[in-house]
Specification:
By secondary structure, the chain is of the alpha+beta class. The chain folds into two domains: 29-39 and 76-303, no CATH class; 338-526, no CATH class. It is built from 17 helices and 24 strands. The strands form five sheets. Strands 9, 12, 13, 14, 15, 16, 17, 18, 21, 22, 23 and 24 form a twelve-stranded mixed β-sheet that branches. Strands 2-1-4-3-5-8 form a six-stranded mixed β-sheet, sandwiched between helices. Helix 1 packs across helix 3 (51-59). The two termini are 50 Å apart.
Amino acid sequence: MIAEKDNQTPEDFVNNYINKSIAKLPARLIDLDNNKMVVKANLFDELDVRRAEYIKALESKDRAKWDEFVKETIGPRVRFAIFSHRWGENEPLFAEATERVPEWLKGVSDDAPAGVKKLVRFCDEAKNVHNLHLAWSDTCCIDKTSSSELQEAIGSMFQWYRGSDLCIVHLAETEKFGDVKRGKDGWKDKWFTRGWTLQELIAPTTMKFYTKGWEVLLAGGENDKKNEDLLLKLQDATGIERDHITDFKPGPDHLREKMIWASQRTTTREEDMAYSLLGIFNVGMYINYGEGGEEAFYRLQEQIIKTTRDKGLFEWYGEPSKQSSMLASHPRCFWNPSDPFDRKRREQIEAEDIVPQSLLTKIFCLCSGFSFWTSCMVQTFSCAVRVEVLVQSGEVINKGESHFTVTNNGLQIKVDTIRILHKWRLPHKDGYRRWYLTPVGHKRVKVAFASKKGNEPLIKKSDEFILVPLTDEVDEKEGRRSKALVAVLLYKVGSNTWKRVMTKDPIFLRRNRIKFDENLLRTIYIR
């Protein structure tokens, strides 16, 4: 466990091992040896009593044997199994479990509540099959009446799943391996659709899946994350690459991709859609049930902004947050499964040959699904627009600094901007108001804003527009910059203050030596 043991005394070595082992444990656990609920301080005291014994034993051993000794003597007492499941009816909660766990673990009758029988079976598998002495379940190992304990649990849960020795997964609607798939009507097993189970899938290093009847999903093997057949099924159905499933690293990297993973999941309490992502992005914030899902997700994005320069946070569709037109209202804004133009279109742009001559502009007025997107409003208008600009040759002057922060004046960002020189409105038709916009150095771009009947669009001919590029990333696998550059369209609402024009999809720019207007590297504020 400890590589630098040559300079440590036996006392230091034992103390470090005990302290680190205890630190990774959840605050409360089920002691499977003694059939009772315990706090980790109890386990520390138990090990502390034998500390002198462990130190004396090390003094008589060769240093090369120290790791092996502590793992065999201290290790088993601090190894624990963690439970991943979908909540059902009559789940055993903290107060009841504290009193009745000793009784339950001795055996339950057939007419016991389903939640109790599920907990007992989990504990039985952990102890008698996997030889683990501690267990943790989110139903009964958190005192949810204590706000401080709930705050600690939600903030630490990713690390608890990551630090577990085994994560046991119960798929309550799965009867065989072939059921692990996504059909036309979605997943058969709702475990794959819940918000909290996203981190429960990617955080643990060792997992074992069980079916509805508590049969192992895959025979043989200690760790189902090493089964290639299962990994391929999970990758195809969830969109999460196998490397992220087996070796996920929390943090803001691959930001938009992680948002897409969460976009089609749901939670019982709306705030949990944001809280369940804290560990995935490795950020922390105050837990405040009752604030609403949109407010919680806005605060999550505020925390993410403090840790990253990835402008993929702004590459989304649909309805904006009420606090900022540049931030999404929900993870679902990052992915629309019915839109064929998102990931596939980006890949298509990557594969296309560069158009060497004139500027080409394509406008996609997305009539299909119009009724949904007209509900995505910014003040008095909404729009369903696709603008794809293939830019003619020119030299990139400056791509700007990928740095931004939330201020009282809005999102402060320092970027290159593409100024719109001319604009004029054309007669509207079929609910669409069409505009021509002429960016600096470009041919004109035709844009259509969809507005509700009887409402004038917020955008006026006198408004000033700019285009702001978002992505400027190097492809990690190819070692080169992407040809597809995503931008958003902003309109001016005050002195150096702008607001985003809502579109169903980002504006795709072709990175064929995009030519920005000179001297437009500047700091702007976006509300």
